[in-house]
Amino acid sequence: MAVTALLVVSMMGASAVSSEATRWFPGDYYHARVEAGFQREVMESWPGPSQLLRLWNEGELDEPDRVSLLLGGAAFHDPLLLPAYREAVLSPSQRVRQAATYGYRDLLADSLPPVSRGVSEEDAALLGDEMDWVMRTLAEGSLFEMWMQALLVHEEAGLPDWHGVTLQRAPVVCLRALDRLVGVEDLPLLLEAYDMTQDFSTRISLLKLVEAVTLSRFIVMPTDKKAGWGRYVFVTAMQALAGARRGWPLDGCTVNGEAVLAQNLRKMGVSGFDPLSADGCGVWLGILDQGLPRWWMLASRQLYACGGPWVEISALFPEKEPGPEERNLLLRWFGPLMPRAQGPTARR
Questions:
Q1: Are 75 and 39 a contacting pair, CB within 8 Å?
Q2: 54 FRET partner, CA 20 to 30 A, in 94, 207, 217, 296?
């Protein structure tokens, strides 16, 4: 399969990364109106990160295609591509430097920098030094770990035995990055950080991410508009998480995320398949249709693996736009399969 992919890339050449979308870069119009569609195009039709890096290293891409690769490749959030950004940020071409700066931040799931006025050689050199440190760090750790370390440092805490760069970012930026990157495999780290943090709002955010990757429900808002709610809602949710953890399956001394997910699906009446395999496509469609908004993120990613469109839905704020719009897009796309979809019904 890998050999076939390489042959296809070789035959396609530069056309594999050409896109008219990048003619709008940089600027507000690109960011607001073009970028999301462009990244969907990348995730649905481009070759993967290893093939993109191969195209870059061959040195045969013209400037428009280099810009396209740097902007589009960021959608994968794969550190494998970082050497391309490291080389590009020192390019004599201003446009390539702009794309490298913007794409690098996007690849990290970082805040996006304003580059419309250009990137100076001095700023490019500083960014190149940062990239060197980030690449060394990610050779041993994950992007998710790097952002968790950046979050915890605000409380004078950190991951045990952390070695590498610690990004200096506001907590809201760290949480936004964790939201975009989180996966089922990150459950042990989420729980570790949850236990370490003393900040109430940070703990709530981490709890929401735990709900998202395990298909759990701990935060229950009153449905009666006259009912008051406040801190106790989240305290109750934290108590519910503590109770659930006592029954979660372990992999040695560590909570097994996939096993927890499968356990929760069984409680919903769904069993007999690996929840992260292609066998569960109909179930994930049912979850997207009938499940809690917090679960939309994981359902959308699994449906992408089933051949559906690529969308990004926040686990922290799923009901804010474009979350509902992206969910509806997926439901329309999978419309013919809806009668066969099976998923849990969850009251909102």
A1: yes
A2: 94
Token pair of 327 as six digits: 């969910």
Instruction: Provide the token pair at 118.
Output: 């250009």
- Which residues touch 255 (CB under 8 Å, ≥6 apart)? 187, 188, 191, 245, 248, 249
How far is it, in rounded angstroms, from Cα 126 to Cα 86?
Answer: 11
Per DSSP, helices labelled H in 108-164 are: 121-138, 143-152
Name 14's bridge partners: none
Structure tokens at 223: 């449905």
Q: How far is C-alpha 191 from the geometric centre of its chain's CA atoms? A: 18
CB-CB contact of 143 with 109 (8 Å): yes
Give the distance, in angstroms, between the CA of residue 286 and the centroid of all CA atoms in the same chain. 22
Cβ-contact 343, 285 below 8 angstroms:
yes
Residue 33, CA distances (Å) to 25, 116, 184, 219 in order:
11, 16, 31, 34
* DSSP 8-state symbol, 6: H
Q: Which residues in the chain belong to E strands, given as ranges?
A: 250-251, 254-255
Render the burial of 28-54: b for 16+ CB within 10 Å, e for the rest: eebbeebbbebbbebbeebbebebbbe
Number of residues in the chain: 348
250 forms beta bridges with 255
In the numeric block, the tokens 């908004």 are attached to 293
Place of tokens 């700066």: 101
Note the pLDDT tens digit of each residue in 234-268: 999 999 999 999 999 998 889 999 999 999 999 99
- Paired with 251 in beta bridges are 254
Asked whether the whole model's pTM tops 0.85, one would answer yes
- Which tokens is 124 given? 């490019």
pLDDT tens digits, 169-182: 999 999 999 999 99
* Tokens (6 digits) for 18: 């050409």
Show the tokens assigned to 146: 């790097």
Measured distance CA(30)–CA(78) in Å, rounded: 22
